[in-house]
Amino acid sequence: MKILAFSDVTKWKGYKKLVDKVQPDVVALAGDLTSDGFASFWNEAVMQIPKFQEEKKRLMKKFKIIQRNVNFYKGRNVSKFFDELYSLKTKYYDTEEFRKIRKQIHVDKFYQFLSYAGKKSKVLVVKGDHDEDFEGDYVPERIDSIQGCREISGKTVEIAGLIFLGLGFNETHYLRILKPLIQKYKNKVDVIVTHCEQNRMPLLSSLNPRIIIRGHFGSGKYLVNDIPTVFTMGVHYTVIELKNRKVPKISQYISGPNKKVKLLKKGSCRPWFSEVSEFERYKWLKPYSN
Q1: More reliable by pLDDT, 189 or 67
Q2: pLDDT at position 273
Q3: What is the pTM of this model?
Q4: Long-range pairs for 78-84 at CB < 8 Å and ≥24 separation?
Q5: Backbone angles phi, psi at 170, to 5 degrees
Q6: Could you say which DSSP state residue 271 is in?
Q7: Which of 34, 199, 231, 248 has the fewest CB atoms within 10 Å, counting from its CB?
Q8: Is the model's pLDDT at 274 over the cut of 90?
């Protein structure tokens, strides 16, 4: 079985073509799909609001800022300008106009992807924490209504003899929900698709699956208490190959500065701003070479 996995989507452009390229049996979407903290819509949508553009120009004039290109600003008061620009963006994030544009450029593209991918493979979806950013965006019933797609947070589904268990952010964040699920499904699942915090990974490994596919934080392939695991945040996509009872083969791909896709040689799940390596910090974590 070939699984195409990704999560924490910043922009939905190109994912339909990816399905055609990889031709997976299963597409596993590990959360933060209708929204993400690093999603491009936070900037793109607000930039399409005329009133925001007018106020931004006034700020630039106030602080004598010159904009050389989309990402480069020049002036003596750049830091103060950016502080006020952030406050200005935050104000517009709470407008109906922003929500409408954001939905068009991100949420609608998510459901369009599901409709496309569901005709070519089985699509399994779990809910991330940011999928709750905007009410009404992530709708399990709507996902289930699309051909070939299943929302599996807290649920299992069997595909080609393999049992997939979905564990969204809520199922893993709250121990009162997670522990009964572990008792119910221990030694009974093959693949876990999850969006969970780092400190929940040892608990998930106790389910004893063949592989864990995890969104939310970190990239790379690891052994979590000897269970093959792949972290999918921050990479373009992951391909997992499961053959008989052999160990999974995991390949991850990233987009470089020139947008050229290349194989990820080494991922990282070290906490931000920490100088201690992940393998020193997490005794349950080891590298995975296959």
Answers
A1: 189
A2: 84
A3: 0.95
A4: 84/59
A5: -65, -35
A6: P
A7: 199
A8: no
Q: What's the full length of the chain, in residues?
A: 290
Q: What is the pLDDT of residue 129?
A: 98
Indicate the residue type of 103.
K
Q: Which CATH number fits domain 2-38+124-255+269-287: 3.60.21.10, 3.40.50.720, 3.40.50.2000, 3.40.190.10?
A: 3.60.21.10
Taking the C-alpha atoms of residue 6 and residue 42, their distance in angstroms, rounded to an integer, is 20
User: Which residue in 241, 239, 231 sits closest to 261, CA to CA?
Assistant: 239
Find tokens 């349950």 and name the residue.
284
Q: How far is CA 6 from CA 188, 233, 247, 251, in A?
A: 24, 7, 20, 12
Residue 91's identity, in one-letter code, is K
Where along the chain do the CATH 3.60.21.10 domains lie?
2-38+124-255+269-287
Q: Sign of the CA dihedral 120, 122, 127, 128? A: negative
Q: Which residues contact 109 (CB under 8 A, 6 or more apart)?
A: 12, 13
Residue type, 183: Q
Nearest to 212 by CA among 166, 153, 260, 143: 166
What is the spatial distance between Cα 148 and Cα 53, in angstroms, rounded to a whole number?
A: 42
b/e map 196-205, b = 16+ CB within 10 Å: bebebbebbb
> Torsion-angle region of residue 218: left (phi > 0), alpha (psi -120 to 50) or beta?
left
Contacts 24+ apart (CB under 8 A), 91-100: 92/46, 92/49, 92/51, 92/52, 93/42, 93/46, 95/49, 97/49, 98/45, 98/46, 98/49, 99/134
